[in-house]
Amino acid sequence: MATTVTAKAGARPVRTGSSGGPVRGPRRPTGWLRRVSLPYLLLLPALLLELLVHLVPMVIGVAMSFKELTQFYIRDWGAAPWAGFGNYRMSVEFDAPVGEALLHSFLVTVAFTLLSVGLCWLVGTAAAICMQDTFRGRGLLRALFLVPYALPVYAAVITWVFMFQHDNGLVNHVLHDQLHLTGKPSFWLIGDNSFFALLTVSVWKGWPFAFLIVMAGLQNVPRELYEAAALDGAGTWQQIRRITLPSLRPVNQVLVLVLFLWTFNDFNTPYVLFGRAAPEAADLVSVHIYQASFVSWNFGTGSAMSVLLLLFLLAVTGVYLALTSRGRRTADA
């Protein structure tokens, strides 16, 4: 039984237990708080830099989209008149020149993205499956396959610019002079052929990333499954359809989404390939927004287009994640 002992007059009473020692109160969890708060303190610098680099410019861009910000207000952005939703209405009025040009650019970008992502995934997956079997020189081929992904974008695309030249380009030399597939040398960087030139460079640059991700995902597929399927008489295509592709479903879900976002927002490839004015057939929305902002000097309209593009990508990402999550729950059930 605890008793209260007073040492001397005016002193604070001390509670003692049955053994005569003092009864200690609950200890403050200072060590526990330190352990819990330490990870957040370590992440705080990265969080602040992330807010500074991404969130602050995004907020400023959204604010710019509600202003008539042209070249006349470059020195004093705050003095630009308030436009409300005028820039957004101008961007989505598809009967007007600005909206019609943006819609055309959007459709070109959608077609380009679907073809590029599909071909990157197909070529990358086929190469990764072929590289699974052990053979002499496999390591060298794997390294060579990753060269387009490892090269700097500007160096790689500028090389393709020289290859697509009309007079002395390597592409026309092979297709026209050697294989005789065309009646005359083609212009690849202007006209309708510019779309196929852009698609070729995008696939050449993007499929090694798909190859790398799929090859890593195949490492988790047990070889015993293929051996058992071979004993049951399953051919190569049946093994791919019944074992490889279902096993790669979680990897492919993330891979396709990343490739879609990268390709839809790609600015470096068309800008280096065509310059500031891309041909109409290869007018991607990223270059179109750049022209609306930095060539036409209408930063308000360009910001509104950027916000619309962001909302579209967020909507597509949300729908894609919802559909893939529902499909994964159905497959698990």
Helix-strand makeup class: mainly alpha
Radius of gyration: 30 Å
The CATH superfamily turns out to be MetI-like
Shape call: globular
What is the beta-strand fraction? under 5%
Level-2 CATH architecture: Orthogonal Bundle
- Binned, the helix content reads 55-70%
The average pLDDT value, as a whole number, equals 85
In spatial order, strands of the major sheet run 1-2
Number of continuous helical runs: 14
H/E series, N to C?
EEHHHHHHHHHHHHHH
Distance between the termini: 59 Å
**Total count of strands:** 2
Which blocks of ≥5 consecutive residues have pLDDT under 50? Answer: 4-10
The main sheet comes to:
2 strands, antiparallel
The CATH topology assignment is: MetI-like fold
Q: What is the level 1 CATH name? A: Mainly Alpha
Would you give an account of this structure?
The protein is mainly α and 333 residues long. It has a single domain (80-332), classed as MetI-like fold, CATH 1.10.3720. It is 67% helix and 2% strand. It contains 14 helices and two strands. The chain has helices at residues 30-64, 86-92, 97-130, 138-145, 147-150, 153-163, 170-178, 193-218, 223-231, 236-247, 249-264, 268-274, 285-295, 299-332, and strands at 3-5, 14-16. Strands 1-2 form a two-stranded antiparallel sheet. Strand 1 and strand 2 (14-16) form a beta hairpin. It is globular. It starts with a strand and ends with a helix. Mean pLDDT is 85; it is low at 4-10.
